[in-house]
């Protein structure tokens, strides 16, 4: 998104997100994008500007008085625009609803700038349940086997071992430093700068022992990253995602695989192997156990097999 001159109220909200709520810069940018789009659309409607020119609309003059004139119907009109004209999915629109709710809650609850929170009654679009994409154990073995055909295979293998054994987020993996490793433990900085310490199993330690002697020298400044690109730089999320995609194409016919789906694979396989929900919550770095439960799905086919194996299944009168 091109640089936009933000109104003061939006700048204040973005600062609140990072300094008080502990949101990441990435999340802050997503909130900012959604609100800039909403303000531009609503201004276009009010001033009869074609929505095709929406990216040119200046919102720097928006004030709290302007915001006070908005209605719940205006917000629904914006969501309709996102669905019909921008072809946003239910997931994308749900994020915009969350952004609007958070913004108006801030205006009323934290700043006391409005008397009525019009977004309080804003409903989230229904999101159909999507079958989660993850690898089963055999597919994970095929995926791992494909790594050894690649250049920098020991580095890539170590990164994939961290994904599959630790359920680490890609942003967390990129942020790891050499100093993050202390014996058999790794310190991970998660969302909201929350720190957690996770045990390194034998597979992770063996992968590290193979990778470290061949690690590319770091050419940047500051803390030494654990994983260094062939250019001597710290990895970005996008580069790691590209590596995962390349490994997947080399060895496994599977729907587009991402680092997040490897995290899902790790959580699912650990749960099936007997990990309890609280331990998983700590390993994955979830603030709420409800989030962890998303990863502990059991497929209908497995449930059917359990029911068929029940001893009582043979007792038919």
Automatic annotation (TrEMBL):
Organism: Lysinibacillus odysseyi 34hs-1 = NBRC 100172
SUPFAM superfamilies: DNA breaking-rejoining enzymes
Chain ranges of the Core-binding (CB) domain: 4-108
A matching Pfam family: Phage_integrase
GO CC field: cytoplasm
Protein's name according to its UniProt entry: Recombinase XerC
Predominant subcellular localization, coarse grouping: cytoplasm
Domain Tyr recombinase residue range list: 130-308
